[in-house]
Amino acid sequence: MKGARGLLKSMTSTAWSRSTLAAVAALALCLLAAPVSAEDEPIIKCEDAVTQSEMTLCAVQEHAAEDKKLNAQWAETKKAVAEWDANLDAHQRGAVDALLKAQRAWIQYRDGQCEVEGFSVRGGTLEPAIVELCLAELTRKRTAELKALVEGFGN
Question: Is the whole model's pTM more than 0.85, yes or no?
Answer without folding.
Answer: no
